[in-house]
Specification:
The complex is a heterodimer. Chain A is mostly helical. Helix content of chain A is 71%, strand content 0%. Chain A is globular. By secondary structure, chain B is an all-alpha fold. The chains are: A mainly alpha, B mainly alpha. Chain B: InterPro entries: ABC_transp_permease, LivM-like.
Chain lengths: 310, 378
């Protein structure tokens, strides 16, 4: 009964890294701006739709892979396309922050929730207007799996999942490097810890906020792009459940903590995928039960530090 | 939420009485209004029920300043309480079904409230959300609750619940049974709504309500003056859950079938919260108005506009930016503003200029931002 356990655990790892990419965006936006962005799931969906257009166009330009080398080139093009799709989210996020979110920082939490909910609804219809109401599938999943890496490890496992795990690790590494080692990253953290002091030493908090919101949108979009080049398709309602799940992830990890987001995402991903085959009735509840348990024991989350990114 | 907002009611008593009578009149006339206008009776009824749940949520939001993001849990528990009684115990009396709904919701609210009462701010919101989703997941995957297909609220699967025999009375007077049932249920809803609003009014003006205000302003101080904070929050949470239970029970009676998604999913919780804000957090009946408006937008706008989500979004944006006190809460200020402009038409030009310049500023900001992002700082 447990022979397939490693396989489920690997699936959970893949799922966890997807969740991490979404939750990372949510957690840096919350950690710095203090806004719980309900529209985050729609930014993720938007990334998925843009990836459909861009990756679909790019792969349409080239022939299907025939051997390992062409498959690698194909994979590189798909990844570049996903990055380009996520890059589209940068100006989108910046514009949303500057035009809509900025006027309401000093308002009550509920108004920020209401505003981002309104943005969620509007973004849904923007996507419906541009791409239509039908689900769309890029359909490069099979070709991606032609890249031969799986036999090397002794178990047959889709290359695509390996790619996602690798990309997730790179994203985590980049974020840690950005916030730990770069000047901009340190300024962002300083702003997160004390806005007034940051302003006093000459930091433009407006620009930092815009940058962070754009970054959040970027990672949401990148997560969406990674999902839609896989077996998943892009559809209008796709943002809801990752949004709710990434709440769970950042709460388990501790609001505003990147390390927490990674650990939380992997915990949620692996536990749901491992539990589901044996207790299918727990599939939906598992992440929430986990969250309730963590919150009741450690209300600030596993790595909880208020308003400080680390 | 500032205290000042709570005292928007500096209207003279006469005006208030007139408004209350007017509101009641409109409520009672809804079935007739729906007949002569294109308004949908069922949607207004549904809106009132969600509004009732929002009134309960507002008790928590306005006084203890806690944002519950999982309040539909009690709405759903109420609905399922009624449905379980009707399906498995063949209960046909509407009142017994309602009582079952209230009992079920109270029990769940007691448990959840006990566990969340000590938490604050975003943790409170997310913990309530988590309990909501646990309940949702439990119901969706349990065969007792018939998974996503849900349960019927007809005893033995055939008969509508009886409403004190009043519907039978109307039927024998020559009315269509479906119509009779809906009318009686509607007036029952209105009666319960009025009673519950009065209860809320009594509650918030009682020492208990004042204590909740104190807790909302400063927990530490409230504890110092001897208020048992956690226990009071627990009680308030349970009471506000009961509103949801009643509303959910009535909703089950109205729909005659309960499915998990419309009554238990987390996003419906968000909608209930937004109804309260939309209608006016600082007012007593604002959440009811917000409920009717939001249910209308979400349910019916789709028949008139293709992009009804965006329409709802724009309405909510307008509320955030222009009506921070909600639709009902902003009425006095709005009335005063219109009055001033009637006396001095020159002000209107200023308004237009203000709107144009703020749009121009917004666009300029966005352009600058994009430029900075693309070409680096400045």
């Amino acid at each position: 009964m447990f022979e397939s356990l490693p396989y489920h655990a690997l699936n959970g790892l893949y799922y966890g890294f997807i969740l991490f990419m979404i939750a990372a965006g949510l957690t840096i936006v919350f950690g710095v701006l203090g806004v719980l962005n309900l529209a985050h799931g729609e930014l993720y969906a938007l990334g998925s739709f843009v990836a459909f257009s861009i990756v679909g166009y790019l792969t349409g330009l080239m022939a299907e892979p025939t051997g390992p080398v062409t498959a690698l080139i194909f994979g590189a093009v798909v990844l570049a396309g996903s990055l380009a799709a996520a890059a589209v989210l940068l100006p989108v996020g910046a514009t949303l922050e500057a035009a809509f979110v900025r006027p309401i920082y000093d308002r009550d939490d509920v108004y920020q929730l209401l505003l981002t909910y309104a943005l969620l609804l509007i973004l849904t219809d923007v996507m419906k207007f541009v791409w239509g109401a039908k689900p769309l599938d890029v359909g490069v999943y099979g070709e991606l799996n032609a890249i031969p890496t799986t036999e090397l490890f002794g178990i047959s496992y889709p290359t695509y999942n390996v790619v996602v795990v690798a990309v997730g690790l790179v994203v985590f590494g980049w974020l840690v490097w950005f916030f730990d080692r770069t000047k901009t990253g340190r300024i962002v953290r300083a702003t997160a810890i004390d806005r007034e002091m940051a302003t006093a030493i000459g930091v433009s908090t407006d620009r930092i906020f815009t940058l962070v919101f754009a970054m959040g949108a970027f990672f949401a979009g990148f997560g969406g792009a990674m999902v839609s080049i896989g077996p998943g398709s892009a559809y209008l309602e796709m943002g809801l459940s990752p949004l709710v799940l990434s709440f769970v992830v950042i709460v388990i990890g501790g609001l505003g903590s990147l390390r927490g987001a990674l650990v939380g995402a992997l915990l949620v991903g692996v536990s749901t995928r491992v539990v589901t085959p044996y207790y299918p009735e727990l599939e939906l509840a598992a992440p929430f039960v986990l969250m309730v348990l963590v919150l009741l024991v450690r209300p600030e989350g596993l790595y909880g530090t208020w308003g400080e990114i680390e | 939420m500032s205290r000042a907002r709570l005292s928007t009611g500096n209207l003279p008593t006469v005006v208030r009485v007139v408004l209350v009578v007017l509101g009641l009149g409109v409520l009672l006339a809804v079935p007739d209004l729906a007949r002569v206008t294109p308004l949908s009776f069922a949607t207004i009824h549904k809106g009132l029920l969600f509004g009732l749940a929002a009134v309960g949520l507002n008790l928590l939001l306005r006084h203890t300043e806690l944002v519950s993001f999982g309040h539909v849990a009690f709405f759903g528990t109420g609905a399922y309480g009624a449905a379980v009684l009707a399906t498995y115990y063949e209960v046909s009396s509407g009142l017994v079904l309602l009582a079952g709904a209230v009992l079920a919701a109270t029990a769940v609210a007691l448990v959840v409230g006990y566990l969340v009462a000590g938490h604050l701010d975003i943790y409170f919101a997310l913990l309530t959300l988590a309990f909501n989703q646990v309940l949702f997941a439990f119901v969706v995957q349990s065969s007792f609750f018939n998974s996503t297909d849900g349960l019927s609220v007809r005893a033995g699967g055939v008969d509508r619940p009886s409403l004190l025999g009043l519907d039978q009375l109307l039927v024998s007077a020559g009315l269509d049974p479906v119509q009779a049932y809906n009318y009686v249920l509607y007036y029952l809803t209105v009666a319960i709504l009025v009673v519950m609003v009065l209860v809320t009014w009594k509650l918030v003006n009682s020492p208990f309500g004042r204590a909740l205000d104190a807790i909302g302003q400063d927990r530490t101080r409230a504890r110092f003056i001897g208020i048992p904070v956690e226990r009071y929050v627990w009680i308030a949470f349970t009471i506000s859950g009961i509103y949801g239970g009643i509303a959910g029970g009535l909703f089950a009676l109205l729909q005659l079938h309960v499915r998990p998604e419309p009554v238990l999913f987390a996003f419906v919780s968000g909608e209930i919260l937004f109804m309260a804000i939309l209608g006016g957090v600082g007012t007593l009946v604002g959440p009811v108005v917000g409920g009717v408006i939001l249910v209308y937008l979400l349910d019916l706008a789709r028949f008139y506009v293709t992009y009804y989500h965006a329409l709802t979004g724009i309405v909510l944006l307008a509320v955030v930016y222009f009506l921070p006190e909600g639709v009902l809460g902003s009425l006095p200020a709005l009335g005063a503003a219109i009055d001033r402009r009637r006396r001095d038409p020159g002000l209107v030009r200023n308004d237009v200029e203000a709107v144009v310049s703020s749009v121009r500023r917004g666009v300029h900001r966005a352009v600058t931002t994009v430029r900075i992002l693309v070409f680096g700082v400045n």
